[in-house]
Design a protein that fits this description.
alpha+beta; two-stranded antiparallel ribbon; 10 strands; 7 helices
């Protein structure tokens, strides 16, 4: 697989005195502040979205036994679900989803402190999940939706018939997708009476904030450096597979 890395140097970059560099940096800072304020505004609009009641009684396979969607909250009021691409019979989970998962363990305690439970959901059977999770050294909660419609209802798994048509319902519309499993993030809230509500879902690049490493790459001169690759993220490996062919 092509994972070429571009060269970088001063040939295509201006080199300025310190004072002129600071002046240019301040121009960019103004744009960055615009983005920050826009991101805050969109976050407020996201929180203001109407909710929909979850009508189905989804039951998941977990290391502790069978658990409902309501059980996954673990006593908190907010549930954040990462839809992790890992299907029945797959040898291993999606490398890109795995990169996102590498950021989770250290954040769980902080999210719990803010009344948020985070759980990963995949359609692979629990035995597959547990084996891969052990290989990767992860500790977070990861459950299987193999025996229910959860993945299909939240449009991150597709039937053979959908795949045969070459068009699936993904990211809130008809799209082509190369796999029967897709990534996403869904959010749920539980009210005082125990009712569960779906408040938000995001797909495709909407889940990019989970990839903390991309933020760092966006700061460096080469950026993400993916233009010469056959597809974005073609360079990504499981964290125990870099250096292997």
């Amino acid at each position: 697989m092509n994972t070429a890395i571009a060269e970088v140097g001063t040939a295509n970059h201006s080199v300025l005195s310190h004072d002129r560099w600071v002046a240019e940096r301040k121009k960019l800072l103004a744009r960055e502040k615009e983005l920050t304020h826009l991101r805050d505004e969109i976050a407020r609009e996201r929180r203001a979205l109407p909710w929909e009641r979850v009508g189905k009684n989804y039951v998941f396979d977990t290391p502790e036994g069978r658990r409902s969607l309501a059980d996954l909250f673990e006593g908190r009021r907010q549930l954040l679900v990462q839809h992790f691409m890992f299907g029945p019979g797959w040898e291993q989970g999606c490398p890109s989803c795995s990169w996102a998962a590498d950021n989770i363990d250290g954040n769980v305690v902080h999210l719990n402190a803010r009344d948020v439970t985070l759980v990963l959901v995949s359609r692979a059977p629990l035995g597959q999940i547990e084996a891969f999770k052990k290989r990767m050294g992860w500790r977070f909660k990861w459950v299987s939706s193999y025996g229910n419609d959860f993945n299909y209802d939240y449009h991150v798994s597709f039937t053979k018939e959908e795949m045969a048509k070459g068009e699936v319902y993904y990211n809130f519309g008809p799209n082509g997708f190369p796999s029967e499993e897709a990534p996403g993030v869904s959010v749920f809230c539980k009210d005082a009476a125990g009712g569960v509500f779906h408040t938000y879902s995001s797909y495709a690049r909407g889940g990019e904030p989970l990839l903390g490493g991309y933020y760092f790459l966006d700061l460096v001169p080469k950026g993400r450096d993916e233009a010469a690759l056959p597809f974005t993220m073609a360079w990504v490996r499981h964290h125990d597979r870099y250096g292997q062919r």
